[in-house]
Design a protein that fits this description.
Largest sheet: 8 strands, parallel, barrel
Structural class: alpha/beta
Radius of gyration: 18 Å
Order of helices and strands: EHEHHEHEHEHEHEEHEH
Distance between the termini: 7 Å
Strand order of the largest sheet: 1-2-3-4-5-6-7-9
Strand content: 15-25%
Amino acid sequence: MKSNLFLGVRLHDLPAGSIEERVHMAAALGFSCVHLASKTIYSSFKIDRSGLTYDLAMHLRELLEKYKITVAVFGCYKNLATPSNEMLTDVLAEYKACSCFAKWLGAGVVGTETGRPNAKNVISDDRFSDKALQKLCLNVKKATHIASEEGVRLAVEPGWNEVVCTPERAATLITEVDDLALGVILDPVSMLHPRVAKNSAQVITRALELFGDRIVVLHAKDFEIVPNESSSGWCDGSGSRLVCHASGTTGNFDFAPVIQWAKSCGRTMPCVIENSTPQTVKQSRDYLLGL
């Protein structure tokens, strides 16, 4: 993998252990960056956002530097599509705290999904409405401004289970927010579902055409289609469900065109493996390194 691409892993996908143990594992596996989720910090140190202090950030930054690991994304996956003003106030406070902490860590990107327009944040058809997208645009604009004030970027991750479920809706969000501080985490598999899985190449081509210039991080995974919709997520009424796996483990998604695009765009970009397990992480690493 050429020098403008940095291979990484989600820290919470590595075997259970302390943050230092997991950072050590990431380095030992040859990764140069990680996706560090706020939930991982909270569970590891038994804190909430009030515990995201400068001293803790400096402690973690020293640890990361020891192992020559950077934070590609600091994850704050809170529901920016919530219809509740009270919940939104709390959500925006979370983005404020995480943006400040990311800055101290040296992470330039705070990552988020795009949520669902109901108080319980459940996957339902209400996410497809124009009203939901318009409301999300307003809230993302607020969160992007908060991140920008702290000197970092907010990066949204389009996905079939959220309001921004297609490349076209992602393009609308970018246009409506109209702020260069808003970036995109491209997880190609997250935009797929059983009915379009066989046309995955066209979906990705469309995404790159519409918002390729805003992509700041790649998420790499693979998938399989299973014949049931008994569980929520990546269902589309076809009777089947898409199940996510680590990149290069099922052979159903060819990540090579995405890597080729990233290498040719001339920008430094992290590529983070998602949905790996202790048994598959090396396989995914080797698959991506071979592209």
